[in-house]
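In response to reviewer comment 3 from the previous cycle, which asked for concrete evidence that the modeling workflow produces usable outputs, we include below a single protein chain processed end to end. The sequence was submitted unchanged, and the resulting structure tokens are shown without manual editing.
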Amino acid sequence: MRNILQVTNSHSIYNTFGHDEYYEQLKTYFDSEYKIAWLRMNASPRSCFTPTLLDNLNDAVTRIKADMAFSEGTKYDYLVLSSDVAEVFNLGGDLSLFRKLIEQRDAAGLLTYAMDCINIVYGNFTHFDEDLTTVSIVQGDALGGGFEAALSSNLLIAERGVKMGLPEVLFNLFPGMGAYTLLSRKIGPALAERMILSGKIYRAEEMYEMGIVDILAEPGDGELELYKHIREVRRSPNSHRAINKVRDIASRISLEELTAITHVWVNSALSLTKKDLRMMDRLIHRQNSRSH
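The workflow returned the following structure tokens.
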């Protein structure tokens, strides 16, 4: 957090808008000077979207919306998603849970988990129906659902050298919580399909060149770049506000689209073979080895 303190010259970021002890897998901060709600993920036992982390995120967003209603939309200008785990933003879906539900043929359980994910993705993309900007600061690897979450933010800041991608094809599945929808809006359907079906892992520099990453930061400077961006926005707020509204119109997505794709994902997950599940086991092992 050193860069934040260097830029703000203030300790206001340490004032919480919620109660840190309430969240098992999420740390929350409020920077009153820059009107930022910080959400820092700290999932356990794996740095992925566990059901607990999804619940924590949903509760934090509910509190933010309540604060916005109480303040007549003035308390927050930015909602920032980042990680409290070194070298990892988020490693994606809870593969251990997926495997268990697939073995149990539990379509309802898979769908419930997936809907919890796309509700967050959709809300983040539509800035939770509030007059604020959602931001992801990627300072470590963002894979699968972790990359989808970063993509769903209105502003994606990534540090040089971090890795991002969609490896689901390695176990014969596809990323079903927004990747196709979000990527096709940014780089077109053809490139989105190519990226999804390749399973390739990209560096932030490549993602920036493709127009997926909005701001490329030096290692350790993700937060610094956010504050630079905020100062620039404050110099011409009307222009930025108008462009944000234009982007909302031009890049509109629907919850119905995401939900329909999620149903395809559930059916595909239930069609995985034992060979596919063995490959998933390898990735589960990698998730475990990257956590904390």
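The chain has a mean pLDDT of 92. We consider this sufficient to address the reviewer's concern, and the full set will be provided in the supplementary archive.
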